Amino acid sequence: MPGSPPRTHETNRGRLSTARSIAATGGDSLIWAAGLCLAVANGALLVRGYRIAPDDAMFYAFALRGWDAVMAETAKTAYEQGRMGSFIIIPLNVAAAYLSDHLAFRWLCVALNYAVFALFALWAERVLATRCAAVLFLILAALNVTDYFHFSPVSFPLQNTVPFLAVLGARLLAFRAATMPPAFRRCAAVLVGWALLLFGMIATEYGFLLATAMLACEIVVRALRQRAETGLLRPAVVARFFAPEIAACALALALYVAWRVGHPSTYGGNQFAGPERLPQGLLTAAAHVFVPVALPYANLLRPLPFPAPVWMVVAASAGLVGAVAAHAAQGRLTVIPRPLAVAGMSMACAFYVVLPVAMTLKQQERCLQRFGCAFLDSQMAYLFMGVAIAAMAGWLLTRFRPTPRGGIALTLSVAFGFAAALTFFNNLRMTNDMRRIADVWDRAQTAVCAQELPLPLATYFDPGGAAAMHEQVDREAFWTLYRDHHRPLCIQ
Question: CA 418, CA 325: separation in Å to the nearest integer?
């Protein structure tokens, strides 16, 4: 306008803000790219192992018997284990076990596994209201370890992945719905998100634990922000905001309890030990939380062959990518609000999601007597551990801000690069060992079409008995079933 003073200060400030936004976007792109590179590198190892757990072979046998057998075993599991979600999870596990012969399907499972990391990182970014998704995905992708502990995707490739994706998708959709202007679109998004959340919680207890842990974080953060803005803490207002989610949790819990009461479990894996076993339960829970993070270091002592020296170079390259990306990501870490509180809340969530499993006598004996101190729940706790690691790193960087930060920044970057390299090296050694199991299935696909199949079939298909199966399984009967199913499919 004529006569108005020039707006040089505002213009410069706008340009500076735009430049910072572009720089932040570029930095995020580098971190996302590094995380994706590490995901692909580790994913290329993970696709080498499949049907690693005895349950995978059991699910595969269900598939070989046909759809009627699958439904019969599904119902039997639902009734005997008191798990209504078995009607969803067992067919999903059967399909995954059957399709695992195909490399493309194994890559799909790997992609879905890392998609869980990406969606969780995006969810954490929304909750913390700070730009940290890229660095969280980098941490989760770089430190994701595999082993013989029912870890996805080498075993149970879809059991937790699909429910977790449903829960995470529901929470991200809830954030998106809050910004949708048309009322009908917002209502549709809320309904779809509610249905996804309910599906994820009903399908498996792990989905319920993950969903309730995430909602607890959202509720606490919203309550604290409300108090900061108004000076008042109004639980009723926060509860009304989360009313649909609370109703979904209550419905899922009611359905679970009603089914469990009507069909008491005879399965030791979901029967709680007595309160006198609480100390053992807490020890088992701590192991389920921390052991997966420590496995790359502990597994160096395992009597497994070390790969050729060239793989040391590949592992070092993965570490270099991780170190460079971690150094670029440090600006994202220092803006995490209240990092010690975030780390504490994340650790509390990690313990919450593993404690129910750790309180079963089966898992306590498995961990404290046989040192099998990780399970399906460990990968759920790992998500929150990723946030805790990021928050603690941010606290260290902020704590040493008054002094030259070069030392601590470089130390954290190198430490993260070393951890990324060692994780890759561990995954390589473990999947090399898993090949003795996967090779049985690979050879069987070709051997079943041979002109003559000598008896006994168990010796023909799996001479060393390497395929992971339960002790009570009649291997000759299993391989006979395998032959009868696959041989008619051979191209003569």
Answer: 13
Q: How far apart are CA 60 and CA 100, in angstroms?
A: 9
What is the rounded CA–CA span in Å between residue 410 and residue 334?
15
Residue 367 belongs to a domain: yes
Whether residue 21 is predicted with pLDDT greater than 70 in this model: the reply is no
Look up the domain containing 380 and give its range.
26-50+100-430
End-to-end, the C-alpha distance of the chain in Å comes to 85
Instruction: Please check whether residue 485 lies inside any domain of the structure.
Output: no
Evaluate whether residue 69 is within a structural domain. Answer: no
Q: Are 334 and 398 in contact (CB under 8 A)?
A: yes
Q: How many domains does the chain have?
A: 1
Condensed to tens digits (0 to 9), the pLDDT of residues 213-259 reads 999 999 999 999 888 888 777 888 888 889 999 999 999 999 999 99
Distance, in Å, from the CA atom of 259 to the CA atom of 205, rounded to the nearest integer, reads: 13
Q: What is the mean pLDDT of the chain?
A: 90
Q: What is the pTM of this model?
A: 0.92
Residue 374's identity, in one-letter code, is A
What is the spatial distance between Cα 61 and Cα 256, in angstroms, rounded to a whole number? 28
In a domain, 440, yes or no: no
